[in-house]
Design a protein that fits this description.
Radius of gyration of chain A: 15 Å
Number of helices of chain A: 3
Structural class of chain A: alpha/beta
Oligomer: heterodimer
Shape of chain B: flat
Largest sheet of chain B: 8 strands, parallel
Order of helices and strands of chain A: EEHEEHEHEE
Largest sheet of chain A: 4 strands, mixed
Structural class of chain B: alpha/beta
Distance between the termini of chain B: 62 Å
Number of helices of chain B: 26
Number of strands of chain A: 7
Strand order of the largest sheet of chain A: 3-4-5-6
Amino acid sequence: MLEVAPSMFAEAGGRVWLAEWAVDRELAEATAAQLGFDYEPEPPFAGRKGRTRLAVVDGLVSPDVVELLCGALGPDEKLVLCGTAVDPAATELLRTLSKGSRTRKIPASILAEYRLGRDWREAVREAEPVA
Amino acid sequence: MTAVGPKTLDVDDDLIAAVAARLDLREPNAEALRAIVYTASQHYDVERRAPPYECVVDVATGVGKTYVLAAAVEYWAARGVRDFAVVTPGRTILDKTIANFTPGHPRSLVGAMDAKPVVVTAENFAGVDHLLPDDVKLYVFSVQSLIKPTAKQGRRVHTFQETLGDQFYGYLQALPNLVLFADEHHVYYGKAFSAAIRDLGPRVLVGLTATPHKDTPREQIVYAYPLAHAIADRLVKTPVIVGRHDERHDPRTKLADGLRLLEAKRALVERYCGVTGAEPVNPVMLVIATKIDEAEEVEAILRAPDFLDGRYADAVLTVHSNKPDDALAELDTVEAPDSRVRVIVSVGMLKEGWDVKNVYAICSLRPMLSELLQEQTLGRGLRLPFGAYTDVRLLDTLEVLAHEKYDQLLKKKGVLDQEFVDWRTRLVVHTDPLGDQSVTVETSEVPGDLAVGGGEAGRPSIEELGARETAAARETESLAATLRARDVFPAIELPRLTMSEVKHSFSLNDVTDLDAFAKLGRQFALEPDDHLRREEIVAIVERGADGLVRTQLGTRRGEAVASQVEQIPLGEARERLVDAVLHADVVTLRVGEDVGAARIVDAFLGGLGDEAERVLSGFLATAAARLVRAVTAEHKRFLANPEYTKVVTVEPFAPERLGRVETSDDRTGPWKRGVGYTGWAKSLYDQDWFDSGLEKQLAVVLDDAAEIEVWARLQRGDLRIVWESDGRVYEPDFVAVEQDGTHWVVEAKADRDLPSREVAGKELAAKRWAQHVGAQTGVEWRYLLAGETDVAEARGSWASLKQLGRS
């Protein structure tokens, strides 16, 4: 297992869950650390990297949430929008509204972006199906 | 990559945009990244050519091509490349490159990077853990260790191994997907380097330079952003060629001329930093000497006690090959605000890699203007000390002291223009009728055209010394008058509307109506097998490289499996379906959600009825996909609105401002851009400047209105109102406070703009803003949009204008 802020998880009943402490501010802080943003709460955002803002939603990223947060972005800014759940329609909407902005699901897709890339090399390990 | 599928570009534009944002790339650097990845894809994906792909990127000095390098690493790392290398022309740039990629170093770029590359040099090669395939590596070495000419003919002309080490060289050679950057590519361009590169066998070679080697094939230069453009785009200082009226060009006069301008700049820098809080800068003059004797002559003049009252006696740093190392070391510290150095005397050109930002004047004692204007020389003085233009002209220009007198410079203008002629590139993407894309690079010439006399920001000019000094004095004077909010008025309290964190809770346990899932089960049970077999979308629950489980919706791999049915016990099928729902994107992975997931799955199984075990044994992944899609669609019915609040904070509005150089007390006369108008009775500031005559007219109405107590012309950043969900911000023109306490946000618009969707959108946003802040602060805020006809018909009356405009 690669490092995904290990303490963000708790195991129970044979499943891995988001840890109980990982809510609100703590969730935002841990997510910022995981994605290499400095945690700088400036609501509704939690961090900044160049012109990219980080927002962490404790809960579902829906198209409404995307609209709200895009409205708070500056003119040249992009958004990395993390939520513990993500409606695929929100992902699509964000791509349309702000090219270069991304949604990420916590914890399943908060690895650094480059870790997900595998175009020019053979897949290091094939994903291992569990169902 | 194997050659399959259509011959079309394979480029991720979203990724380019994301990289550009996180590295805060300037536009030309983002364009350079785009050119590199598009043309590399053209080579491999469209033309299906063999490695290596070679290209050269020519970005003007001072624009920041290190960012191009970092951006290309970011892009390709996200697409799976792990091995990058940088060849440098020598130790200086090698050290600089290492610093650029060392976390925490002041020059580091990695803070903003997603891929934090491990820097590998010949020195630390042995100690790096090469078995971590997921780490991005950046190998850094100098060209000298790559090319080492040997005397014997017929042998390979380079023995990389001797200095880099066999092991390191062999390792690099064996890497299948090495992306190599050749920094300051022009320095070592040639046969030996090409041969060395062929031996190393990179997949991609990107040459980076501001001044391509003259033998570089034009078609290899996939991106060219010439100096003339960088100046016009205000990304580097604007060069001003300064000539005297008279014939005097003895060294003493010339040095004194340059230093007087430098002193004006120093005084302005101090005031500017005082007003804006910017980091202090130490302005210096660079003197280019041709020989050591000449450098020593310059140094002697500057050190003389009678030269400018001895102010420069201990402020000279001379660098040439015979100087001890400590002179070179001091060269690296001249940017420090407390550096003693005011003049750097250099024999020949200072090399690439010495890229300080505080050179504000360049001169030579000889008539070598065209050499001074060459990018390698001029480039030493082009970087912006404050990162962007200050709009104080003297702080945005580089003075180039000419040997020629002003009249001669004017006669030579055509020749000098030529120095700024260059060409630039444009990437053109072609789409054929099948939708396949390819790319070509078009080039066009950029003309040079120097301004004469008082120039403007972004256009190089030729100016006369006396006029230049007068302009400098005026700028110094105007900046001395910092504009402060006049305290004769009550403070304007300006609200800022921001948003709290957004919360949006949703739990599968909120799904109270399970009928839809039971119905889905019933339909599934009745569907003929060959229908299901043809269904493409399946859900796979898989464990990713990070060890985390997620449900992926994808298309079926290979043939349907119905023929090889093995019975899956219903209990196991149920567990797998629960897992699929639980790990769907739309579900939060919190304890308790399994209970909600199980209820949904049980409703689905109930719908399947007796058929459950048979159907699920054959089509479990299809069933899982249907369920996940149903949950994704259904959840919206049970969703509350996002929770957030709009937060209003109120701050007194009184920022300090820099006055304009040109002022006028003619409030009612013709409008001129950039002029600071004075003589206001009720303006918060002594001076106001406007973007149009209409705005000035409106200011006069506000100023003359008995009902108005105070008004202010808002400048960029003072009041931001977001008006589009894509983050577009609207910044209104005026704020005005009436005697009765009503606060107005006022906007003037040309009549032709009034019907536009944009103006309507801004108007709506401003009205909403006014309502919000009014409700939360208890102060009445209103918005008025006035067209040019409204302003004219109001005949100076604020009361009439309020009737005529849209409020």
